[in-house]
Give the backbone structure.
Amino acid sequence: MKLYWQVAKNMWDQAIAYRLSFVIFRLRNLFWILTMYFLWVYALPHGKVLFGYNQSQILTYILGGAFLSSLIMATRSQDIATEINEGNLSNFLLRPIGFLRYYFARDLGDKAMNIFFSIFELTIVFLILRPNLFLQTSPVLLLLTLVFSLSGTLLFFFFSVLLGFIGFWSTETWGPRFIFYQLLNFLAGTLFPLDIIPKPLYTVVSYLPFPYLLYFPMKVYLGQLSTIEMVKGMAISCIWIVVLYAVTQFVWKRGLRVYTAQGR
Amino acid sequence: MKKYLKLWLVMTSRITQIAFASRFGVIFFTLGKIIRFIFFLLFLVLLVEKTRSVAGYTLWEVILIFLTFNMVDIISQFLFREVYRFRSYIVSGSFDYLLTKPISPLLRSLFGGSDVLDLITLFPLIGFFIYTLSKLDGITILGVFLYVLLLTNALIIMLAFHIFVLGLGVLITEVDNAIWIFRELTALGRIPIAVYREPLSWVLTFIVPVGIMITFPVHAALGILSFQAIIVAFLISGILLLGSLYFWRYSLKQYASASS
């Protein structure tokens, strides 16, 4: 455990070493949040209801979603493909260290840094724009939001690792990852709450793992889900975690069979 | 001019060959861009259909703004892709090699790496643009002509900013972050800029003239842009271009060739 704590700490130090790049990355993210924020403020004036949301709920969804994405979607596992393609994976195979646990620890370091900056950014946004936000007071719903966020974090981690494992078979790994992120913007509810899309499409999407990354935790926070919906959501999320974990283990073993340490 | 055009064609064909060497990547990259475009468009359609208008713009007018932003973004990425590689030339000392060539180092640094991959999505976009125009009332040939003229003006502003970034690269080796910040600021123009409040609207008016780049061509097409506004648009792009060229020359004088 101490070992992986040190890995997470090293990741934090690494991010600090390239401060300017990190701050610019966060700033870019902030511009995107502002685009959505102002668009919703304009489209949904105070006192009106649109798609079942009032202004305070939708702004909470946008800003809260931005904060949660720092926890759920911050990752360094995109480096896995490079490690494989450059033959550096051999170093891991020789060490008494779990590859997945190592990358999860790295992700935790990166997530900590992203959360830190996210709090800073959102405080500035709050001080300048003074948005009318919805504050959830139910301890049960707050706890459930945390539980759904953690399951979303696991889902995202397995997806990201699987994309990195493409490196076992191809050097062109950025293309699938690029598509994945574009899909995520829509299907995870990063761009807008998913329940604004037509009902049949929403039903199909709700069986995919993506909505449980961001959309579901935010809906739980807003208290807009019934107990049955939350239980169903947790069940689907858990099934996907088990499936993705099994696929990750399978692909890892298959990948090691074809790994040739090319580049070393 | 002819020499440069020939040179540009040769360099562009080389870069295209390199890009297409990884066909898998080309397909995914293009698909990803299309997905991004479709999803944001879907979001705009869902939102504006419910609200009927955003900042006084109807659905098809909002779509026209979104298409205009995409056209400016795609064309400028295609033309100025080499700027993204400029930092490595400075850091590695390869820029000295460009300076010894019998061609303008500025034109080489701007247009030396035009990537056709960036252009693939432009053609369906133009088709959708024509369809959007057919859905709008009061579109005239003069309006479309002014739209194209002001879109060219937007590209001149983009050119000026890319030259400024090159100058910054020579002085402090800072290219990537500066260009990303500029691109993200420009991306704020994918929706009507009237929705933004201070201090952001100030930045979009005086620092990065997104309004002139995106809103002005749309207003011209809709026939609601005054003659004075057109003159102001060209004056601002002219001033920015001259300023950036001056900055580029200044940065070259400061270049110490430290990396070579």
